[in-house]
């Protein structure tokens, strides 16, 4: 329980503070440093949740593979703006391995894939946005709902597309002059509605296609290796 509290403190307090530090103090000019700090902080909850022995190594190996699949999926669908399997992979990871694993997969998927797509002041926001979608999906009650009911899983896919777009539009507004403006935010959200719709649809499509094959393999691995 103590580790859980520390983990949520890191994710919900320290990481947002790091992003705010980058925006307010460094005017988004030190985004590489902030991204590295977020990547480091994202790893801590997983390390704290590890037990001694081979299980920890195996779990880290599986999470590394899930991050790699997420990154590769973003590359493959690079030609279609907004239509990406990243959220689906993050959510599936969270369902089978929990909130901390979901957050780690989301945040690392963003920073690693942006080595190809381009690092920038948007990277910390992407890391946090994808990470939070993984964290929410990995909550105990959410994991049960998402596994048992495909309709709820589809609804979460739509929710994830909307939330990701809304969170990234915060960066869009802050990038203009470093100040959040409600009118600008509403204008940015309105302009981004078509992209938001693509995010939502792609999440549903990839979740419906991937949940069974990935889920069966992950469940088998968990059972076989006692993870």
TrEMBL record:
<feature type="transmembrane region" description="Helical">
    <location>
        <begin position="186"/>
        <end position="211"/>
    </location>
</feature>
<protein>
    <submittedName>
        <fullName>ECF transporter S component</fullName>
    </submittedName>
</protein>
<feature type="transmembrane region" description="Helical">
    <location>
        <begin position="6"/>
        <end position="26"/>
    </location>
</feature>
<feature type="transmembrane region" description="Helical">
    <location>
        <begin position="153"/>
        <end position="174"/>
    </location>
</feature>
<feature type="transmembrane region" description="Helical">
    <location>
        <begin position="33"/>
        <end position="50"/>
    </location>
</feature>
<keyword id="KW-0812">Transmembrane</keyword>
<feature type="transmembrane region" description="Helical">
    <location>
        <begin position="123"/>
        <end position="141"/>
    </location>
</feature>
<dbReference type="InterPro" id="IPR009825">
    <property type="entry name" value="ECF_substrate-spec-like"/>
</dbReference>
<dbReference type="Pfam" id="PF07155">
    <property type="entry name" value="ECF-ribofla_trS"/>
</dbReference>
<keyword id="KW-1133">Transmembrane helix</keyword>
<dbReference type="GO" id="GO:0016020">
    <property type="term" value="C:membrane"/>
</dbReference>
<keyword id="KW-0472">Membrane</keyword>
């Amino acid at each position: 329980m103590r580790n859980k509290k520390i983990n949520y403190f890191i994710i919900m307090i320290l990481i947002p503070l790091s992003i705010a530090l980058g925006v307010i103090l460094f005017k988004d000019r030190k985004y590489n440093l902030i991204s590295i700090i977020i990547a480091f902080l994202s790893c801590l909850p997983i390390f704290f949740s590890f037990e001694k022995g081979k299980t920890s190594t195996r779990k880290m190996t599986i999470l590394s593979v899930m991050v790699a699949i997420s990154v590769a999926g973003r590359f493959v669908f690079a030609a279609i703006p907004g239509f990406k399997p990243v959220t689906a992979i993050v959510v599936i990871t969270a369902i089978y391995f929990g909130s901390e694993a979901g957050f780690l997969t989301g945040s690392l998927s963003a920073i690693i894939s942006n080595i190809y797509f381009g690092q920038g002041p948007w990277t910390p926001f992407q890391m946090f946005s994808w990470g939070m979608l993984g964290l929410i999906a990995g909550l105990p009650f959410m994991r049960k709902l998402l596994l048992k009911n495909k309709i709820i899983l589809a609804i979460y896919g739509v929710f994830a597309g909307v939330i990701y777009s809304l969170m990234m539009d915060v960066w869009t507004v802050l990038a203009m002059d470093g100040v959040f403006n409600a009118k600008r935010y509403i204008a940015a959200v309105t302009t981004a509605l078509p992209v938001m719709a693509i995010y939502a649809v792609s999440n549903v499509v990839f979740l419906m296609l991937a949940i069974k094959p990935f889920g069966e393999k992950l469940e088998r691995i968990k059972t076989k290796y006692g993870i």
